[in-house]
Request: fold
Amino acid sequence: MCGVREAEKQADKLAGRLEGWVRRGGRAGFLTLTQRHSYYDDLLQLWNWLEFASGRALRASSVRDAGVCALFRSAEIVHHPDSGWNVHTHSILFLGHAMSASELAQLKSVIADRFVQAIHRQGGSADRQGQDLRMVEVNTERTIAAYCLKGTTIYRSDDGSRTPMQVLADIESTDTEDDHRRWSEVSSFALHRPGKRFKYTPGIDRLCLP
Reply:
């Protein structure tokens, strides 16, 4: 499928940039930002809330001052049979140095506070404890890159959450009414979705590649 091939291409590109950054002496952080959601929440509304809040959280001057030189952000959509659409982001933060536990905790606090406030301001719900930031271990760059792009692949998690491509694959195999309804929601969302699923800091190749 075209979407799966594109995900593989994007994952390879991200891994190359990460590896180049590490070779130049940099390090990376892996950030997940998520919001509360329920079965009847609208997919497009959840996306709009996330798009605004994650952008606001990561554009802060305090984030740059903490040592974030560039970033990659991937917005991921999965559907859970009980809690509905889960719209969240995975981001790679290109750091100027390996952060200590206290530095990492401080950076997470700044980002999480701004993200949660922005979600609440729009009428959504999120909490600081639901956000996560950790260092990317050296030599795991390709694993992390693939994980960031899994939302565009055929993927079912252990808790039953499915990516849109998994929903489509299930339609082809089991053809249930519920799966057709989920796919209809995805198709309508794709027509009206603002913003991009993948975002890089402009000029990132100058930082990472020879």
About this structure: The mean pLDDT is 92. The longest helix spans residues 2-23. The radius of gyration is 17 Å. Helices lie at 2-23, 43-58, 61-65, 101-121, 141-148, 164-173, 177-192, 204-208.
